[in-house]
Specification:
Length: about 110
């Protein structure tokens, strides 16, 4: 569901720039989501710094993202404690956050 949902978003492409098991999803060549295909299912998403603080304090399954800037990235362990709708909202927030940082003239498909 995660991969398919991300790929249906406008201008998203997938790649494996780090190794053969780390799936990276990018919009306009900027990362907004990633996951390791072999480890326990976790997804890493971009978030506003103030949201990172709130989410990591409120949810046990959300932490600062490993190997990423913990001020801007969260890691979500998919353990059934969060609803699919909430996870989709976090994915959308990550996607929109990255899109908002790209100048309008560069947002060509």
């Amino acid at each position: 569901m995660f991969r398919d949902y991300c790929l249906q978003k406008k201008s998203v492409k997938e790649s494996f720039p780090f190794d053969e098991t780390t799936l990276v999803l990018k919009v306009f060549n900027k990362m907004f989501a990633l996951t390791d295909l072999e480890d326990n299912f976790k997804i890493t998403l971009k978030a506003k710094p103030e949201d990172v603080i709130l989410l990591t304090e409120q949810y046990k399954c959300i932490s600062g993202a490993y190997h990423m800037n913990k001020k801007h990235w969260i890691s979500i362990e998919i353990d059934g404690s969060l609803s699919d709708n909430f996870i989709i909202e976090l994915i959308n927030n990550s996607y929109n956050l990255v899109i908002s940082g790209i100048p309008e003239k560069n947002r060509k498909n």
